[in-house]
Amino acid sequence: MSTPQNREQWQEMADSLVIQGQAFINGEYCAADSNDTFDCISPIDGRVLTQVASCDLLDANRAVANAREVFERGDWSQLPPVKRKQVMIRFADLLEANRDELALLETLDMGKPIRYSGAVDVAGAARALRWSGEAVDKIYDEIAPTAHNEIGMITREPVGVVAAIVPWNFPLLMACWKLGPALATGNSVVLKPSEKSPLTAIRMAQLAIEAGIPKGVLNVLPGYGHTVGKALALHMDVDTLVFTGSTKIAKQLMIYAGESNMKRVWLEAGGKSPNIVFNDAPNLKEAAIAAASAIAFNQGEVCTAGSRLLVESGVKEELINLIEAEMQAWQPGHPLDPATTCGAVVDQQQLENVLRYIRAGVAEGAQLRQGGQQVLAETGGVYVAPTIFANVKNEMTIAKEEIFGPVLSVITFDGMEEAIRIGNDTIYGLAAGVWTSDISKAHKTAKALRSGMVWINHYDGGDMTAPFGGYKQSGNGRDKSLHAFDKYTEIKATWIAL
Ligand code: NAD
Predict the structure, then answer these.
(1) Which residues form a coiled coil (predicted)?
(2) Does ligand 1 come within 6 angstroms of the Cβ of 169?
(3) Full-model pTM
């Protein structure tokens, strides 16, 4: 079937879709041990899409035991890297071959526009699997510089059983940023998608088997964080826990690891990223286009969202006017309409969170310049108008806390020192943008910002070659690039006396 071209065709495809909601353990779909399920509700219109297995401790135990068994047997962990590479590439090909279905599931499940779920999410997920697979037979171990009568080998080995707990904002993509290096290096994985968006992970598990990944190597356990998520985090036989999600839960996972087997914990958490526009920005219009996209793309449900726009006073009014105009291109619409750029927020609870922050912005004295309300309520779905606050102080709640919605806080500054001070005045350190024509100022600012990613004269750049992750309470370790392989391998030093 060719890719649907309009909303009606996507809807037709949605109506004929058979949606799988079961867990995937040891190569097979199955109900949760308790037989419990929960409704999977689409934020597009409030419809129940399917019932999803609500996994818990017993399912975690079963999946981890299977993952361990296959790891020890070596079906995957002991394959030559070149063989794992071939399977990973096939896995990526299968994601691409099923792009429309996966994109549709993602859109129905969490409300993002269909134009992005295929082109950004599925394409990016396939790229992550392919890139990691292609890399794995090109990484060499090391020989230490020893005396003549000895050899010191420094080798990398897979860690064993990896539990991956991922969020709802880019469900497939975040999962594949973990699965790529985790599987390529030979580990077994138990993946727990968010209860708000489990469908693509569940579907993808079957594609892994089709690609040739042995049974038990990739298991998917849908369910809640406080049940199956917690069970995995406390599990005594999980070697490594990789996580993308909020800083609050990230901290909790470190406690669980300490209370159990001291499993390695790698965290990609929240952000409150400053996007700094100096008076000498090379092109204000481009800065405005990027600033609007940085807060409205994916309904603002992006860890790297440019949620704090720091603008130097000389260009403040002009920039805000340009962003207001640009925001017209980001008004919410039906997510299955290929023209829609901004879809539904993930659920009713998230809608209420965002509206609560908007009320706090008004109450604390920020100037509401645009948006500020729920829209399209008549659809039965949950949509928020992109919102711009000016005259924001960095101490205000909307400038301090991660809203995870399309709400922009504009903060004014004068001079590089003040920009850096405000930019760094946050518990987070994920990303930052810097707009200036002065190369020296650009480098000085980039160096001074305590964040894992800095974008100069654009926003949100990078590909699989660049590490992704944050300083401070935005987490530790990195996804993407060869640095991600560090999370999934142990280093062994073998010393041989000759
Ligand atoms: P969340 O922390 O609420 O949930 C993330 C995952 O953790 C979900 O699967 C959830 O079920 C699980 N979980 C919740 N409680 C748990 C517990 N007690 N034990 C084990 N697992 C538990 O985050 P979210 O709302 O799904 O996602 C939004 C957050 O993700 C934002 O803070 C965003 O910044 C962050 N995020 C970060 C990155 C990054 O790379 N740094 C990327 C995307 C999203």
Answers:
(1) none
(2) yes
(3) 0.98
